[in-house]
Amino acid sequence: MANLVTWFEIPTSDIERAKTFYRTILGIKEELRQENLGGDMPYAFLPMEPGDVSGALVQHPNYKPGEGQGVCIYLVVQGDLNDTLAKVEPAGGSIYIPKMPLGEMSPGYMAQIGDSEGNRIGLWSAE
């Protein structure tokens, strides 16, 4: 199996402040590329090359920094994502965001679940 981790999202309450923080501590010289997903969700992408595991800073009411929220790591799922989601609740987890296409941002599908410990985990699949 290649990388199990495919993507992560770091919630922010002030995306400009967070961009400055991460550029400073990581020594990133260039400005972070920013897009508004869905029109109201600022995403600032951390540097990445094709094939890299990377992530973004995200500001949205559904993404809250801190306790009970925090960073969301996306794990790679083989096969149809719905097959994996069907196992989540019987295993003691919760489905926060059902399977949805990523569209032009990235090929594939994503979902977010709560694991058995209450952690928010993202899932990604090509199917």
Write up what this structure looks like:
This is Glyoxalase. With 127 residues, this protein is an alpha+beta fold. The protein has 2 helices and 8 strands, in the order βαββββαβββ. The chain is globular. The model has no long low-confidence stretch (mean pLDDT 86).
Could you describe the largest sheet, including whether it forms a barrel?
8 strands, mixed
Structural class label: alpha+beta
Radius of gyration over C-alpha positions, nearest whole angstrom? 15 Å
> Count the strands?
8
Number of helices: 2
Rough shape? globular
Low-confidence stretches: none
Instruction: Walk across the major sheet and give the strand order.
Output: 2-3-4-1-5-8-7-6
Helix-strand topology string: EHEEEEHEEE
Average pLDDT level: 86
Question: What fraction of the residues are assigned to beta strands by DSSP?
Answer: 35-45%
The CA-CA distance between the termini, in Å, is: 17 Å
* Helicity, as a percent range: 10-25%
Pfam families: Ble-like_N (PF22677)
InterPro entries: Anthracycline_SecMetBiosynth (IPR052164), Glyas_Bleomycin-R_OHBP_Dase (IPR029068), Glyoxy/Ble-like_N (IPR053863), VOC_core (IPR037523)
Protein name: Glyoxalase
Domain VOC: 4-126
Concise synopsis of the structure shown:
The protein has 2 helices and 8 strands, in the order βαββββαβββ. The mean pLDDT is 86.
